[in-house]
Design goal:
Layout (H helix, E strand, L loop, with lengths): L3 E4 L4 H16 L4 E4 L5 H10 L4 E5 H8 L8 H8 L4 E3 L9 E6 H7 L16 E3 H5 L4 H8 L6 E3 L1 H9 L6 E4 L3 H5 L2 E3 L12 E6 L4 H8 L7 H14 L2 H6 L4 H8 L5 H35 L2 H16 L2 H12 L3 H25 L3 H9 L4 H31 L12 H10 L2 H29 L8
Parallel strand pairs: 1-2, 6-7
Antiparallel strand pairs: 3-10, 4-10, 5-8, 5-9
């Protein structure tokens, strides 16, 4: 049977709704997996279209304004009509409206007598930080600023960190979802949208129409079963326990809780799963980078236009932000480990190519002339003289690439490819340092182990006369 892959964005409520869908599908007899925290709207939407995921939780306002780019709010029937040609369907509303809101501390709002977004016009000096996605959305900051004629210049901030910043009085205003548990936890007040800028954001599931019938029925059975108060309670439990599965189980009956609860992984089990996947991503991408990077470095060492093009190209690749590279690769390759491996491979090339080229170029001319005088062929000169002489530089480049690769591989979690980035991304969403450290510490230790392993290999790979004492 076809595996049903549930996706979710990287914020608490999406994680919880993704887990609810996974548990419900499992109970309906579907082989199901949840790719958590794939990224922002653009990435998860591309994953659904390409079939890398089968469904994910979304909101009608986001679908209408951000995805379908409608100049006016679509009705449910219009949304379904737009989705059908793409092979996609949409469930009925889950039962609550999770609209955007601007929030600030209640005591600060009372002190300044701010009740609505319009009141912000009289306080342009207030410190405002908004989530990076909200700053760019069609239904986000830019049109909101124009509608309310605001003069603020907000900075970007990760949504999960905004609540800690506003509680610590580092910022005055941020954006929020109306069902966020942090609103009550930090005693914040949502400013009235008095000009009715935000559309309705009713929670739904978007799914592929080629799913098995029982899977579609299972997803549609969730419609109308979650109230705003219930969703806030589930979000609060997720942030309290830092466990999305436990929070999602509160939605279900005791029988389902008992069955699904028995499947919850312990931390050692999760750590082993994360580490295995991390090593796989690093190992495959690094081996590919070595196999291709060393020949490229050899060509680059010859100089000329071709050498400059090779070194320039790998240098430019290294400057591309990881999120931007993933955003480019996902539409073409989908959400899978191969996409993450390709990204890591590209980031691993520069140290290997550059060090190989530099190592060969620094071989003294006298040695090159001696090799030619002995009558060695070009291949023999390369394999018996140049590469052994450059081996110290080459191995240093590979070692650097490997250590960087271990750290960079955490980005794989942004597209649901797993690894030690999973708890880091999850911890950022929960603003929970302990969860972040569950992935950050093992990743750092793994980088040290990789470096130590290469130090041991050096004894066997570097000719004795070239080893540093």
């Amino acid at each position: 049977a076809k595996e049903v892959v549930v996706g979710s964005k990287k914020f608490t409520e999406s994680y919880v709704l993704g887990e609810i869908a996974r548990i419900r599908l499992k109970a309906a007899g579907c082989d199901t997996v949840h790719r958590q925290g794939i990224g922002a709207t653009g990435i998860v939407w591309a994953a659904l279209q390409t079939g890398s995921i089968s469904l994910y939780p979304e909101y009608t306002g986001t679908l209408s304004e951000e995805i379908l780019k409608s100049s006016e709010t679509f009705s449910v029937e219009q949304m379904r009509a737009e989705l059908a040609p793409k092979g996609l369907g949409m469930s009925e509303s889950l039962g609550f409206n999770n609209t955007y809101a601007l929030v600030m501390r209640r005591d600060r709002a009372n002190e300044l007598k701010i009740k609505s977004i319009s009141d912000l016009k009289h306080h342009p000096d207030l410190r405002m930080s908004l989530s990076n996605e909200f700053l760019q959305r069609q239904d986000g900051w830019i049109p909101l600023k124009a509608r309310y004629e605001l003069a603020h210049n907000p900075k970007g901030i990760e949504h999960g960190l905004a609540y800690a910043a506003i509680a610590a009085d580092q910022i005055d205003i941020t954006d929020a979802y109306s069902t966020d548990a942090g609103i009550a936890e930090f005693d914040l007040v949502a400013l009235e949208d008095d000009l009715r800028f935000f559309p309705e954001y009713k929670a739904v599931y978007l799914y592929r129409l080629d799913l098995p019938e029982k899977a579609i029925e299972a997803i549609n059975s969730l419609a109308g079963t979650i109230s705003k108060e219930s969703m806030m309670r589930l979000n609060a439990e997720a942030e309290r326990s830092t466990d999305y599965t436990k929070a999602a189980l509160l939605y279900f009956s005791d029988d389902v809780q008992a069955t699904a609860g028995a499947e919850i992984e312990s931390y050692p089990q999760r750590l082993w799963r994360w580490t295995r996947r991390h090593l796989y991503l690093v190992g495959v991408s690094l081996l590919a980078a070595i196999a291709i990077g060393i020949p490229l470095g050899i060509f680059a060492s010859r100089g000329g236009v071709s050498g400059q093009i090779i070194l320039g190209s790998v240098g430019v690749i290294q400057t591309i932000p990881s999120l931007a590279l993933l955003a480019f690769l996902v539409p073409a390759m989908g959400i899978n480990p191969a996409t993450a491996i390709l990204a890591l491979f590209l980031y691993s090339l520069l140290p290997i190519v550059r060090n190989t080229a530099a190592g060969i170029r620094t071989i003294p001319a006298s040695l090159r002339e001696s090799a030619e005088a002995l009558g060695l062929s070009s291949t023999s000169r390369l394999t018996k003289v140049y590469l052994p002489m450059a081996s110290t530089n080459i191995l240093a480049g590979i070692k650097t690439s490997a250590v960087i690769n271990v750290g960079t591989a955490t980005i794989a979690a942004l597209i649901g490819a797993g690894g030690l980035g999973e708890p880091i991304i999850s911890g950022l969403s929960l603003n929970d340092n302990r969860t972040i450290l569950e992935g950050a510490i093992p990743a750092a230790l793994l980088a040290l182990l990789v470096q130590g392993a290469f130090d041991l290999f050096e004894k066997h790979l570097i000719p004795r006369g070239l080893r540093q004492k």
